[in-house]
Design brief:
Number of domains: 2
CATH class of the largest domain: Mainly Alpha
Number of helices: 13
Shape: globular
CATH superfamily of the largest domain: RNA polymerase sigma factor, region 2, helix turn helix motif
Order of helices and strands: HHHHHHHHHHHEEHEEEEH
Structural class: alpha+beta
Length: about 325
Amino acid sequence: MPRNGPRSVSGGPGVINAMTVDFEQAKAADERAFASLVEPFRRELQLHCYRLVGSVQDAEDLVQETLLAAWRGLDRFEERASLRSWLYRIATNRSLNAIRERGRRPTTENTMRPSRPRRAVEPSWLEPYPDSALPDPAPGPEARYEQREAIQLSCIVALQQLPAKQRAALVLRDVLGFHTDEAASILETTPQSVKAALQRARATLDSYTPEREQAPLPDSPTERNLLATFSDAVEVGDTARLLTLLSSDARVTMPPQPGELIGHEAIGAYLDHGAEVRGAPLQVRPTRANGQPALGCYLHSQPWGMMVLTLSGNKVDEITLFADPALPRRFGLPEHI
């Protein structure tokens, strides 16, 4: 998987060796020294904010706010905790503030045709996360989730259903592997409160996480063949062929719309209706998002949005549609084809 930008420091709750960075220079308003101090954490902080808020653009803004706050407050950093924990404390609190502000967003009209719902799904202001922007830290020893699992769209969607404090506690403890005491310090609460939040969050998350067969390995022959067949069917507008590639209880979602389509009949009707409205099949280009195969989508050679595919065995179990023309460019795909 390609890696761009600064190398990330280990994602476990370890401490960066303060002797390798001139703290005094950074505290004396040396911007280059400060950059060398915090840049290694930028990618993992952005992913942390994304897990909490579900939006790549919001996560980017929150990291900028975090680093600005760290720059302004560096003289108050006493090195009693690791620099990484201190940055996570700032980023987490900024994210929790953003989640509170998000409650003021307008409601979203559901334009998807009704279908038999699996459960009530709240609107989720979700965006796909480019694999090229993922850090490569190892989780701490307390982590309960594999890192590939913890970035998948189904996990991000499930996290958005949790109350903000439960969400943050679970990400810090079970995804990043901070010890309970460290998570409590970051959240400015007690270890007992973290443990109580974790118990409730784990139960809720389990109820939102569907059981699936093992997906093919990334870029394996099975995945490549399935993606090629799926792409061909999309580009010729062959709904019947697409349906043969889906699992029997496959679903389609289109964040931030609150509905979901389940099963071949509902999905087939939706795809046919969409093709009729657009007047032409979509054109696609492969990429990866959230550790999953994805397709940048174009209509009449102009950007239309993106599909992210969730695989189960040798079938597509979920299609997440993002009708945002800006997405292909953000994933490094052509602006037009």
